[in-house]
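Figure-free illustration: sequence to structure, shown twice.
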Amino acid sequence: MNVADSQLLASELEKLGHSAAGGVGDDADIMIVNTCVVRQSAEDKGLGRLQLLRKIKEAQPEKVIGVMGCMVGVRDPLWMRQRLPFVDVFMPPSDPTAMVGFLRERQDEADVLTMEEEGRAQRDALQDGELVLPLHERGQLVSAQVPIVYGCSHACTFCVIPFRRGVERSRRVGEIVAHVRSLARQGVKEVTLLGQIVDRYGVDIKDGPDLADLLHIVHQVAEEVGIERIRFLTSHPNWMTDKLLHTVAELSRVMPHIEVPIQAGDDAVLARMRRGYTTDQYRKLVAKIRKMIPQVAIHTDIIVGFPGETRAQFMETYRVLEELKLDKAHLARYSPRPQTVSARRMVDDVPDAEKRARHKMLEDLQARVVAEINAQYLGSRVEVLVEGKYKGRWRARTPQNKLVFFEAEGDWKGRLARVEVTWTGPWSMQARLPKEEPAADPLLVLAG
C-alpha cells in the first residue's frame, strides 16, 4: 500500500513539473519519508531517516521535507509537529494534497503554469488516463499495486491501521478500471488489488459489487489491455466466501495464490486478538481453498509473543503450521502499538528473548515445509512472468508467486516463459528454457 501511495505522490509532483532526483542531499529539492507503523521497528526506521534529513534542512533551509503515511495518520499529528519542527508538510496516507498545495503556494503563478505545462507534456502519451506511475518507473515495472479498499473497520486488538488509515472506504469501480488501464498503457503486466481486508471490498457501498464481481470486471479489462495476471491481498478468514473462491478458480488470469492470515494457532489467543474465528474454522477454510482451487498456494501471517501467550499456546501455533504446510508464513514478533486495545488493556508480558526464540522456531519449521513443497516442482515445467534481471539471471514468478531464476538470451522482461525447474530450495527455484522437442513426422502420425 505504501508503494502505491508513493507512486501516487510522485505522479502528482510530476504534474507540477518536478522529476525524480538521484538521491537526497544536493540532488533533491523535495525529500519525503513515507512511513509505516505496523511494527515498532518500522516507526523507528522512519524517525531515524527524518533525523538524517534534519541535518540537510539545517544546512539548506530552502529544501522541502515532508512526512507521509501511517505515522502521520488521518488526524492532525500534533505530537509530530512538536517533535519534528523542521518538517514542512505532513500528509495522511494515500493523500498527497497537502504537499501539492504547499508547493503551489511557494511558486508564483507564472512558474506554476510553466511547470504544469511541462508535466502535461510528460503525460500526453497516457491519453486521458491518470498518471499512476512516475516517469522513471513508466515502462519499467512489470508488476504494480492497485488499492481498492482504503482503511479498515475490523479493529483487531493488535492493529493500529484503523487509527492511522481511517475507516474502510472502497474505491469506485470506474476509478479502479481506469487505474488498471493506465498501468497497462505504461507496460505493467500484473496487477495486485490491495486492501487491509481486501475481501470486504464493497461492504461500505449499498448494493455495490463485491470482490468477486470486481475480479470479473478487472479480468475482462485485463484481456482487453494485455494484463497477464491478477492477484489480490490481504484476505480475512471471516470474509473468504465460496463465491470468491469459485471466481478465482474460474478466471484464468486470476492467480491461484491466496493470502489469508491465521495470526495464531490457539483459540484463546485468537479471541484476545479479536480475530473472530477458531483454529478449527481456519483448518476447514484451508481445506476448502485447496479443494476449490487446484494447485493453489496459501500464504499466512503469524504474530508470536502476543500478550498472555504461553509456551503451550505457542506450540499450538507451531503444530498448526506444521500440519497445514502453507506455502509462505510472514512472521512477526508482537510489539504494542499506540491506541490499540492490546496496548491499552494488555500487558506485553512475553520477554523479547522468548519472542525471538519462538520466531526462530517457526522460521526454521517453515523453511523445511516450503523446501518440501517446492521440491515437488523439480523437473516440471511451469509458466513464469519475468520481472527483470537480477545478478545476470532472469527473475520471474510462477502463478503461485514462487520465485524462479533462469538464464536465457534475448529480452524476456515482461514476458511469459515456460521453463523447466532444475533446482529447488525454500525461498526460490532455478530453471532453464527447455529444448524444443522435434515435431512429429506427419506421415508417421497418419500411419499410426
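We now fold a second protein in the same way, so the two outputs can be compared directly.
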Amino acid sequence: MTTFEQAASLARLHERVRLDRGTITGLLFGLLGVTLIAGVAPTIDSTTRQFNFERPPDPAGIRFHPPTWIITIGVLYLLTAALSLGSPAAQRWARLTRVLSALSFIPLTLVLSLALSDNAGTNVVNLLGQSLVLATPLALGATTGLWSERSGIINIGIEGTMLTSAGVGYMIYALLGNANSAFWLWFSIVIAILAGGLVAALHAVLSIRFEVNQIVSGVVINLFALGLTGFLRSEVIFKTGNTSGVSTSDIGLPLLSSIPVVGTQLFSGGPIYWMMYLVVFGTWLVMFRTPWGLRVRSCGENPHAAETLGINVLRIRYQSVILGGFIAGLGGAWFSMESQAGFDNNMTNAAGFIALAALIFGKWTPWGAFSGALLFGFSRALGTRLQFLGVEVSGFEIPSEFFQSLPFVVTLVVVAGAVGQSIPPAAAGQPFHRSK
C-alpha cells in the first residue's frame, strides 16, 4: 500500500470515528438509558400514579406504572445512542430521536418525582398553564433583546429595564391610586412601559452616541436599577402604606375558556399575558414582513451596506432599542401589577438574563425566542411544583433551594448546547460610524 493510500485509509477511519456534537449527545443519552434501565427502574416505587387533568376531588387523568415508563424512556435513549453511532442514513433518524429524547425529560422528571413522593398524582394541565404564564416576562424580555440585537446593539440591561419599570410603575399605582383603582392601575402600566423606553433610551445614547462598550452599558443599567428601585421601595412605596393592592383581573377567551377540563386552566389569563402573544406576533410580522423590519435587520448584519442604500443606521438603532425598551417595560409591569400587586427588591429574579438565553436558544427569531421562553417558563413552573410534591431520595427530602435553582441549571445547559449553533447578527456589538 502506497503512502497516499495509507493516508486516505486513515482519513476514512478518522471520519468514521469522529465524535461530533450529535454523536457525543447520543452517547450521553445511551449512558443515561443504561442507568435508568439497570439502576433506577428496579429500585423505584412501583405503586401506580396518575397524571391529572382536573382539580380535585375526583379528577380525570391517566394512571401509569412508574418503572414501565422509566424503562420505556431508557430504551428510547439506547436507541438514540445506537442511531448516533450508525451509518449516515441512521444519522438522519438520530436527529429525530435526539429531539424526542430531549422532550422526554419532561415526563421522566414528573414520573420520577411522583414515584419519589407520597403524592398519588399531579395536575399536568395546570402545570402547562403555569408554564405559559411564567413565560410571559421571559418572552417579552427575549423580544426586547431581539429588537436591540437585530439592529446591532447588544442589550444585557433587559433585567434592569424590567426591574425599573416594575418599581416605577407600582410606585405610581401606590401613590396615585392607593394600589386599588382600575384607572390608576392601567395608568401605572402605561408609566411602566414609558419607564422601560426611557431606560432603553439611556442604553441607546451610551452605546450609540458615546460608543460606550455595550456590555458595560448594560451592566451599569442593571446596577442602577437595583439601587433606584431599592430606594423607591424603602423611601416611597413603604411610606404610602400601600405595599400590596389589587392586580389585573383574568380574562377568558370566548368559547375556548368554556372547554371542559382544560378551558379555564389554559385559556384564561391576565391582560399583559395576552398582550405578550400580540407582541411576539407583531414582532414577527413587522421584522420579517415589512420594509422597516428589513432595514432593522440590515443594520444588524451589514450597517455600511445599509447606509449605501440610504438607510439612516443610527436612527434605526435608536428606534429599535427604544421600542425594545417599551416591550421590557410591559414585562416589568407584569411582575408588579399582574403577577402580584406589589413590589419587592429584585423581584424580576434574573428574568432578563434568562430571556437572553431564550433569545440565543431561539437563534434570534421571534418564534424561536418564544419557544425558549416556554422552555424556561416550564422549568420554573416545574421547580415550584416539585417543591410541593415533597420529593425524597432514600428518606432525605430534597431541599427547596435545589428546585429553585432548576431554571438556572436549564439556562446553563441550553446556552452551552446553543453555542456554535446560534449565530448572532454579524454587526451586533460593533459601533457604527457614518461614512465621510
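Summary for the second example: Strands lie at 49-52, 61-64, 121-123, 251-252, 268-269, 392-393, 396-397.
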